[in-house]
Design a protein that fits this description.
By secondary structure, this protein is mostly loops. It has one helix and six strands, in the order H-E-E-E-E-E-E. It has a domain of about 120 residues. Strands 3-4-5-6 form a four-stranded parallel sheet, with no helix packed on it. Strands 1-2 form a two-stranded antiparallel ribbon. InterPro entries: PGRS_rpt. It holds the Pfam family PGRS. This is PE-PGRS family protein.
Length: about 400
């Protein structure tokens, strides 16, 4: 009976009336098939072969969930990792969007072989949640030069009527180096969360990727990536999502290495109707510099990442600003020690348009200590300023964040 109903519709439109779409074949990057016009889930996209993007997830029809995007293939030698496939759209009436596929690992042989970006999550239709963004791939490279990680995919939008938006995908980490060279790879940036329609909560921003480590005698660690922004709550009701945290600076395990900077946190999502706004993400600490008394001048510690700003609210409490990361310590040296890194700035608290509490500002990061030297010690890093508290029309304002201490 069902085959008899589906056959003419399939021949005319290329998709059935009722039924799930076929999954794409892994290793081909084939897209998932679309679900039936009336009912059916979209098929998942197939993973990509090396150097090939993942297939997109299939879309649902009237009712059903979108298929997940396929993972991107690992990068070929001297090439970037392939991107993950996008998630399929949820049903026009009801259904969730599919998750985005993860990005592939970067190839070997060059510091340009960044990790693949994560695929974006699929959007919902009228009622349903947006899909989560895919994670970014880890950077590739060579032993003396690391490549950066891929960015996380953005979350899908929630339903126009009801539904939460999807979270942003986490970013890929930068590749480290094991031989003397310029620097490790930087962490990718976290994906931004999707937006919502009338009723629903905004998704959370993806975390920034960590910078690559150094295990050679000389080299620079990678900087941390920035966290993604949280999504806004619904126009009528819903909370804003939190901003993603900044990625950590790479670890300097070598004899001589400057300190990398920590990643900044993403901003919190706004509450556009009734609801609480999202908090800003935290900034990551800067890395300590490394050196020994056989060198004349010490290297400088990395700067701490700034905290993200809190989201604004209309009726409800605003989001708090994110705390900032501390600065890294300067390296010790034979003549003059290295300077400490500066602490990051705390995020500002969000404001309230009508009724509610203003958001508190985030605390500033402490400055790093200067390194010791036989003649001169390194200068201490400055503490970062705290974020300002948010205002409110009919409610108490937020408190300002504490300033970070100097090193």
């Amino acid at each position: 009976m069902l085959d008899a109903i589906n056959a003419p519709v399939q021949s005319l439109t290329g998709r059935p009336l009722i039924g799930d779409g076929a999954n794409g074949i892994d290793g081909t990057g084939q897209a998932g098939g679309n679900g039936g016009w009336l009912w059916g889930n979209g098929g998942n996209g197939g993973s990509g072969a090396p150097g090939q993007a993942g297939g997109a997830g299939g879309a649902a029809g009237l009712i059903g969930n979108g298929g997940a995007g396929g993972a991107g293939g690992q990068g070929l030698p001297f090439e970037a990792g392939a991107n993950g496939g996008a998630g399929g759209a949820g049903g026009w009436l009801f259904g969730n969007g599919g998750a985005g596929g993860n990005g592939g690992i970067g190839g070997a042989g060059t510091n340009l072989a960044i990790g693949g970006h994560g695929g974006n999550g699929g959007n919902a239709g009228l009622i349903g949640a947006g899909g989560t963004g895919g994670a970014g791939g880890t950077g590739g490279g060579e032993p003396s030069a690391g490549a950066s990680g891929g960015n996380g995919g953005n979350g899908g939008n929630g339903g126009l009527l009801i539904g939460n938006s999807g979270d942003g995908g986490a970013a890929g980490n930068g590749a480290g180096i094991s031989q003397n060279g310029p620097a490790s790879g930087f962490g990718g940036n976290g994906g931004h969360a999707g937006t919502t329609g009338l009723i629903g909560n905004g998704g959370n921003g993806g975390a920034g990727g960590a910078g690559g480590d150094v295990s050679a005698d000389f080299g620079g660690v990678g900087f941390g990536g920035q966290g993604g922004n949280g999504g806004a709550g619904g126009l009528l009701y819903g909370n804003g999502g939190a901003g993603g945290n900044g990625g950590a600076a790479g670890s300097p395990g070598s004899v001589t290495a400057f300190g990398g900077n920590g990643g900044s946190g993403g901003n919190g999502g706004d509450a556009r109707g009734i609801g609480w706004a999202g908090a800003g993400g935290s900034g990551a600490a800067g890395a300590d510099a490394k050196g020994d008394f056989g060198t004349s001048f010490g290297l400088t510690g990395g700067s701490g990442g700034s905290g993200g700003n809190g989201g604004n609210a209309l009726i409800g409490n605003a989001g708090a600003g994110g705390s900032a990361g501390a600065g890294g310590n300067g390296a010790s040296a034979g003549t003059a020690g290295g300077s400490g890194g500066d602490g990051g700035k705390g995020g500002n608290g969000g404001s309230v348009g009508l009724i509610g509490n203003g958001g508190n500002g985030g605390n500033g990061g402490n400055g790093g200590n200067g390194g010791a030297g036989s003649l001169f010690n390194g200068a201490p890093g400055f503490g970062g300023p705290g974020g300002s508290g948010g205002a409110s029309l009919l409610g108490p304002p937020g408190l300002a964040g504490t300033n970070g201490a100097d090193g």
